[in-house]
Amino acid sequence: MWRITRARAELRIVFRRHRTQLALSIRVTVAALAALVLAQSLRLPLPLWAVLTAVIVTQVSVGRSLKATLNYLVGTVSGAIYGGAVGIIIPDSGEIALLAALALAIAPLAFLAALRPSLSVAPITAIIVLLVPTITHASPYASALDRVLEVTLGGVTGFVVSLFVFPSNAHLLVVETAARTLNQMARALEALLAGLPGGLGFDSLHRIQDAIGQALSELNVIGAEAEHERSARLSAGPETGPLLRTLLRLRHDLVMIGRSAVRPLPEALQARLASPLAHAGAALGDYLRASGAALLARRPPPSLDGVASALDSYAAEVAALRREGLTRNLAADEAERFFALGFALEQMHNNVRDLERCVAEWALSSARVGRKNEQSG
User: Considering the entire predicted model, what is its pTM?
Assistant: First the structure.
């Protein structure tokens, strides 16, 4: 009994951790089966293309599925029309004619796909349109029409399944990824400011900061998908741009602090600044984590009082050091890193204020949606 209980608990943990991936696997499976059943019911010549298209366009979010569906359909129609036209102009009268038709079809479409990656399926479709008639003995026109019908069926099936079977809203993914990124930033900032007096070195800095850059790249992709959903009125929520830009500016602040932490602070400043820096790192780290939690729960932002107090204490200590003349004899590179650190902390204070506004906007937007749902209900 104890083993069964433990196994269930572990399964629940795995499910919560990988719920997005599990939902995607279910959607892909349903889309493939539905596309096959529909293609066979409509007696399409090659149900394979309907199934493949449904699998390709069924993505992790509704916004990504919408984009993939549109790109795939546009590329397929373009390739089918052009490939069919080439097949009609150069009829299949032998191996040489087929090679010439393939070259004429592939070269311009491959060039177009290189210019616009969203049309990458166009050359493939043209090849299918030209070669399938040699197997099925259909005309190029019929082959092109069949490809368009099969891909359209698969694309529409995949998108409908993405919309109704465990739908994953890109706005929700933006919030989850932003919260995870804020947690990473909190850990990085605490490590940077705690290690700054004694210096961290390049290897430690890269280890601390690399994951943040990857998370922001992922967030930019998901943000674009969320905007596709908003423009198509598939989801309601605030613009993702302000939140993404704020996180990017916070990332720049961390980079500036990291540059100041490459080498130790001057010995005359280490003892005096170690405690204020650690206090500032803890306050800012707590605020970033609390902001991520507020985003996830759609709550108003946390108070900035602790951050303001910690940064004021640091600024007061810096002012005292300057009054005592301890910064006058710093070497040029030491002075540059010291004052760059102060500037970076000031910029971070401004940027967490912007983060406060972003969190408030997402909480307000959620409240508006809730009121609309209550009124419509």
Answer: 0.68
